[in-house]
Structure of Protoheme IX farnesyltransferase:
Amino acid sequence: MLDAADRKGTRAGAGAATIDITNRTSIDSPEFLGDHSAVTGWRQTVADYVALTKPKIISLLLVTTLGAMMIAGEGFPSVWIVLWTLIGGALASGGAGAVNHFIDRDIDTKMGRTKGRPVVTGRIAPWQALAFGIALEVASFALLAIGVNLLSAFLALAGYLFYVVIYTLWLKRVTPQNIVIGGAAGAFPPLVGWAAATGDLSAGAWVLFAIVFFWTPPHFWALALLIRGDYERANVPMLPVVRGVAETRKQIMIYTVIMIATTLLPLATGTSGPLYLVLALGLGGWFLYDAILLLREQTQRAARRLYLYSLLYLALLFLAMVIDHAFVV
């Protein structure tokens, strides 16, 4: 048996042990999570700034830039010219996207597709998005002017200004033809690529511009059909909101036919040959089938099908030009 002193010492030791255990840092405590939270916050900030650039749009624009570079001359341009052009193009496109986040922050709060954007949620301040967008374009111009040529730098700047000023600031909120005219901004990358590879702009470059220009309305209006409610809530006069769903489907069909006809012009300029013709007709036929399906079914499923295929279509069309060019050369 323990005497009184031993029992007292034992209780004191147990108390000390208890105090030691309760004073240990919990895995849920701020002290433990401090570094982890800092890392998580840093990653979120980087992700937000990347989101400002609209990377999905950049990837498709760079496909048309690279495709134009590959077919502009008799041979392929140097690896360094390709690298600087793609980086410069990505910076210009990303800068335009960031400025768009700044300008559209009021209507983005009303649209389900955009209400989680960094500026809308407050994760990035509006002035930071604007400064970031301008800085990216400055970097783009400097890189293209020094590493490639002045013509490509000015063309990238023109595309940037067309998207920010003509489309976002002016046309987007005032006319249902916003995407028809403003969509020209997305047609500048082939010009940038062509100019980077050759130092000039021949008829072939402008044909590529026209292809992307006429591709834009059916592509974007298919998306507008899917998110028509968003545009209504934001009071943005997209075609389905102003002219109705039925009229939008008709316009998609009309522009699809014009686009397919335009894709045959590279043969007239000597940019592409018979192999491209076969591939272009096949790709265009599929696009036309989806447009007819949308006109007949009048369903969201048909609109989604056309929208998704339109993304693949543009990339495959430019790939067809490159394959044809490589085969001929």
